[in-house]
Amino acid sequence: TMYPLLSVMEYLTLVGTLHHMPPREIDRRATEMLRLFCIGDAGNNRIDTLSKGMRQKVVITAALLHDPEVLLFDEPLSGLDANAARTVKEIVRGLADRGKTVLYCSHVLDVVERLCDRVLILDRGRLVADGSPQELMARHGRENMEQAFLDIARAQDQASPV
Q: What is the pLDDT of residues 91-107, one digit of tens each?
């Protein structure tokens, strides 16, 4: 939830305070993250004046502010420009490399293929595939995750009564 009448820094301060972060740490981390996303000058802007992409950057900053052990991202690249999308992918990969648990939900399968260590594919709430991208591609004799996913989806459609 974002509070549209707050400024970006007021919102991030609220989030950091809710996570019991010291004020100086909130300011340092928020400033660092906003700079990383090239919106360092937006700190005093009200959230309701931001574009969709800028709001997405602020939400991601809020999620990362307190350096959580577990993160859940649902289509985090939605609305982001190419540079910000690359930054998010680098951050997600870096978090996983540091031992953080990152659940990354996406329909952008080329990103999933490059970014994820393990892929779970659900169909109507049931797990239908589980493995590394390389394992799933090899299992279906495919060169990329999109092709493997289409095979898995087709098999599910054929197995399910209409």
A: 999 999 999 999 999 99
**Residue 66 near residue 25, CB atoms below 8 Å:** no
How far lies 86's CA from each of 14, 33, 103, 149, in Å?
A: 27, 14, 18, 23
pLDDT of residue 124: 85
Nearest to 92 by CA among 114, 120, 109, 119: 114
For the chain, the average pLDDT equals 94
What is the tally of helices (H) and strands (E) in the chain?
A: 7, 4
Is residue 73 within a helix (H) or strand (E), and if so which, with residue range? strand 70-74
Do residues 128 and 154 make contact, with C-beta atoms less than 8 angstroms apart?
Answer: no
pLDDT at 161 over 80: no
User: 153: left (phi > 0), else alpha (psi -120 to 50), else beta?
Assistant: alpha
Q: How many CB atoms lie within 10 A of CB 12?
A: 24
CA pair distance 86, 46, nearest whole angstrom: 25
CA distance linking residue 64 with residue 66, whole number of Å: 6
Place of tokens 């594919």: 121
